[in-house]
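Worked example 2:
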Amino acid sequence: MACSIILLPPHNCLEYETNPNPKFHMANQIETIHLEEVINNHSQDMAGKVVAITGTTSGTGFVCAREVAKKGATVVLLNRKSARAEEALQQLQAAVPGATFDWVECDLQSFDSVRNATAAINSKYDKVDVLVNNAGVMALKDYATNDGYDVQMQTNVISHFLLTKDLFPLLKKSEQGRIVNHSSMARLGPPLEAQYFGANGGNLGGDGTEEENTSFRGPRWMRYHQTKLANAAFTYGLKRKLEEANITNVLPLLAHPGLALTNLQVTTAEDGGMEKDSDFMQQAQTAEDGATGIIRAAMDPQAQSGDFYGPTAGWKGFPDKLEPEDYLHDDWNVNTNWDGCEKAVGKFEL
């Protein structure tokens, strides 16, 4: 979310991409417009395919899990253990009777939990066809995970790098493996800085003033910007490395949801990062339409390595194929992300 004179050009605003749908008073007034067209014209039969998705308790991850299951995929749900995760599993099973959903416990704020999750997947499956790195947090306070990293950077970026790294052998076994990363309009702004990738949680600018937080400026939003740019740089860094290794059957892809009604803004508001009932949210689209970018990346039969899907206008709209900004794949941002993640969780072997 953000119109930030620090992070972004004034006309650009961010999205809310991952967690559960909030119970906003205007939620029932918003119509889903684009999901049906994406499913009808930009998807394929997913029977026999294994799709792993982070952050599926609701919001865009929940919608993506539901829609790929309708197309026949076996869906691995990567969530923290919670009553909400159990409820989401039951809702998905009710929404798609007969589909196969496999909940694997995965807490992105713990590297050990991510490694346990990838070990479980490697023991159960011969291949993974699609990995959707969907989950994330936004503009939280400046504090460290138990691993010592900034909570936003570890959740949104480094743990997804680790997840991808450890599942890559299974993705290579797919006829066409796909790695879908989630960015946002928050990618727009200054270049990546190595300090945000280190074990510096709690020492990355503090929590900002109330005025900064409610206007989407200050250190919370800078940390969030770093994660969204990092997810894009990861995509194009991986694309480059796959091309150098002549690996053609794995496609790194990028999506952003625009401004969509999910619970990401609620958790941010509870943490003091923004005002969830702002007039700005009146401009949001549904979680279903917010999910169409990752759904198209996961299932569009015409997708090619490096394709980037999202609303052309930024805030909302059909998930068109976008032209990535040059700095998403420049050497500085690609190398800063790759080096920082490898220092945190180990070398990514292709």
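The CA atoms of residues 258 and 315 lie 4 Å apart. The beta strands are 50-54, 74-79, 100-105, 130-133, 177-182, 250-255, 308-311, 319-322.
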